[in-house]
Amino acid sequence: QMLSSSLNLHWAFGFSKDKVGGVQSLCQKDRNALFFLSSHSGVIYDFEQRTQTVLQGHCNIITCCAVDKSKRFIVTADSGIDPIIIVWDAISCVPVKTFYNPHEIGIDAIDISDDALFIATLSSCDPDQAIEQEISVWSWTTDDSEPLLRQKLSFSDYYHVVKFNPSSKNQLVTTGAKSISYWNWDDLRLEHYIGVVSKTDLGNFSGRFVSTIFLPSTENCITATSDGYVVVWENKNDVPSKKSSDTFSTMKIATKVLRLVECGITSLIATSNDYLAIACDDGAVRFYDYFLRLEAWFEDLSVGSITSLTFSVQQCPFAPGEGGAPGLKFWVPDFLVGTADAFVVGVESSLFEEVRKEDRRGTLLMQGMAEEVAAVACHPSLPLVAVTCSNSILHIWNYDIKLLMILREFNGGIKSDEKRSSHTRSRTMLKSKCLSFDSTGSALVIGFASGVVKVLRTESLEDVSTFSSTTDAILDIKFSPSGMYFACFDSGHHVLIFKRVQDEGINARKGEDSLMFQFIGRAASHKAPIVGIAYGMKDIVETLVSVSEDKHCVEYDLKACSISAGVVAVKTVSSDGNPHASHRLDIFAKPTALMWYPRTEFDVEDRFLVANDEFKL
Fold first, then answer.
1. Residue 207: burial class (beta carbons within 10 Å; 0-12, 13-18, 19+)
2. What stretches of 143-222 show up as alpha helix (H) in DSSP?
3. Which of 116, 261, 487, 538 could form a disulfide with 68 if both were Cys (CB 3.0 to 4.6 A apart)?
4. What is the C-alpha to C-alpha distance for residues 567 and 7, in angstroms, rounded to an integer?
5. What CA–CA distance (Å, rounded) separates 389 from 258?
6. Which residues of 331-363 are buried (b: 16+ CB within 10 A; e: fewer)?
7. pLDDT digit string (tens) for 455-496?
8. On the CB side of 39, how many CA atoms lie within 13 Å of its CA?
9. Rg, C-alpha atoms of the chain
10. How many separate helices (H) and strands (E) can be counted in the chain?
11. pTM of the prediction?
């Protein structure tokens, strides 16, 4: 019987933290869940039950998503070869509509109308291939596989955000770095005009345009910039339309520019009870009325620059006239923030009234990887996986209970999963490259781009020893089956060997194998980049081999290796009668990978496998 899939994805550790709007709340009266993007998949995470449902179907990395007002439908879209749009049922977690190849190379922005009947998309563009950007409107509840409306954007500006008017599904606004376009499709025909901002009339402002939204129950729009300014747009009846049709009886012009904050604004949302919510680069969320008067602020979340701000569906607990509206006692639905430091935090509006700073930080719901993953290693006997990122933050996760057990920042300190802080994105001294557990799992060795090698105690991530035996980047680390040795190779074509020694110091623990290692030596074994090292057994004796792009392999005599003798290679007599330490594997093909072949009871000799660039083993 054939399986439907060779690999089944069960859980996602981490999310696409840099995607603006990549985290969406699905919280309602009887549900505590959120949706987030994780590379090629979407994930529905019930943080009350601690369960995940992975939504798979995209062949490319998902570039954008949207959730309707009722939290019933989720829309995801990607960009690349054979792009698609998928509409998902957020309750049953199944796709209900798929659009294949909606745009030539994919979608960069998407939104869904408040009544969940229409979808608006902005396509990806590629000037090098003369692919222009398009805007499309889709009626996904019908049988049509083509958009209801489509139009090319013959503008010099690139548009990165599209939003529906919550008060009128026939109106859209698109935001570019330098311009804003307003759209109307009342007559099933897309008409538009570009909003004009006069710095002469309104005063100077700076930054690129980030997003534009319609303010519900008003005729106004708000645009935010990356330097903390907002532009207010109002209808003017005396501005003649340049269109021949009467689609636009009035046109919006910029009437006011105001600097709200001293940092960049990343997101704008109009809440269901008429507050304007602004998420900022400084990690704060601030609430204003529609006259831009500050009503509340959440500045102590301490989770980094906010990339996603999203609200739950919730009834106001106050009677009319008592609270839950601008000018009255402050209340908004519970909200979530996703940050560039890979945190998702839940916040209740009542935290605004807390006195102590520590009580105003919200609840940590999820933590991901702050930078790209550099290496992964699994514990040999426990359900633990070690993950290190390029910013030298090391996580130890328990993949059975889905819990972060301990975290260490090598350019900071050791933190448990209960202690979180805002990780800066400044240049670090150490940059992780690789890691490996020893055979018992009690030691974890990590290598860095600076050539530093650290041996850590797994349970606490404390340093046992540190070696600076090379200045070249450590690219891989391997332990011998017995755990007596570990070896690594660097970008300078060297192989480094370390040997376990007895720990008789104050850190020695009774009944535990020593975690102390001694640096034996370093050998310039190859003339080209090394592609792999592997330990194995040869006549019941441990041995080590390395393979390089120079088409040679080298075997090392571990028993002969010592501090005085250095790294000793096994030499054999070749056909020319001379002893050689390296052996040619191929004449033309370059090796690409190496592994020791597992020995079975029927094998009469030990072997290792080498893959090459001609797709051969």
1. middle
2. 199-202
3. 116
4. 41
5. 40
6. bbbbbbbbbbbbbbbbbbbebbeeeeeeebbbe
7. 999 999 999 999 999 999 999 999 999 999 999 999 999 999
8. 11
9. 30
10. 1, 49
11. 0.88
